[in-house]
Amino acid sequence: MGRFMSSLLSLQQLHISIDDKEIVNGVSLEIPRGSVHAIMGPNGSGKSTLSSTIMGHPAYTLTSGTLLFNGNDITHSAPNERAKAGIFLAFQYPYEIEGVVFKDFLRQSYNALHGGTEKQLSLSQFRALLEEKMALLGVTEEFITRHLNVGSSGGEKKRAEMLQMAVLQPQLVILDEIDSGLDVDALRTVCQLLNTVKASQPDMSILLITHYQRILNYITPDAVHIMQKGVITQSGGAELAQKIENTGYGQ
After folding, report:
1. CATH architecture of the domain with range 7-247
2. What is the pLDDT of residues 21-75, one digit of tens each?
3. Which pLDDT score is estimated for 249?
């Protein structure tokens, strides 16, 4: 394991279907605590299906296989139970929610995850935590008083998710094509924020789902996996992403 601790997420021979059509055909993967893993692949390869299934999305049927998180079997756990266990899924296109103020959403989310535990905070304690993370990421007071993602640019929506990650402090972050809809400058900024959060939480693991190599110019993965037609066809280091950029998935 080198500098990494024990496995945080273990996927064991997952077979996943949508409407009786098998999309993922036996994927096994080990993600150590504190590591960054990237899954690359063409459209329709099953990447997003895999990430949604890890989070417990009810539209996807896990027909066989096992998911272990922190050594615990979460194969049949509900999405909220997985969130409480420490899994966070960042959406490709975050939702806009009119009438929900971002700072209130953050506190409600924190309470939903940590209420009744040793991490439960009073209002003043939560505000101190929020201000600490706002300072870390350069977020203004005006930003957290907006309605959640309403009228925000693609980059601002991803910034909001980075703040959510920093506040909620998950053990595993799944980033499902967060580069979608971002220009080069916005992508660079979002990746800088992600790297800042990761540096502040070194034990946090990241599973990065992407179609393009460009995001890996800013986030250095410990391992890259190529997914095609529902299976992982290659695994390697960061250099594998550059190989795919040069030769394409057909090679």
Report:
1. 3-Layer(aba) Sandwich (3.40)
2. 999 999 999 999 999 999 999 888 999 999 999 999 999 999 999 999 999 999 9
3. 80
H-only helix segments in 169-215: 184-200
Residue 20 three-state SS: coil
Tally the residues of the chain. Answer: 251
Angle at 161 between CA 155 and CA 162, to 5 degrees: 90
DSSP 152: -
**Beta pairing partners, 18:** 21
Pairing relation of β-strands 205-210 and 36-40? Answer: parallel
Q: Which amino acid is at 202?
A: P
Considering just the CA atoms, what is the radius of gyration of the chain in Å?
Answer: 18
pTM above 0.90, yes or no: yes
- Strands in the chain per DSSP E: 7-18, 21-32, 36-40, 61-69, 72-73, 87-90, 97-101, 147-148, 172-176, 205-210, 223-228, 231-236
Could you read off the pLDDT of 208-251 as tens digits, one per residue? 999 888 899 999 999 999 999 999 999 999 899 888 888 888 75
Decide the pairing of beta strands 87-90 and 172-176: parallel
CA 170 – CA 164 distance, rounded (Å): 9
pLDDT of residue 4: 54
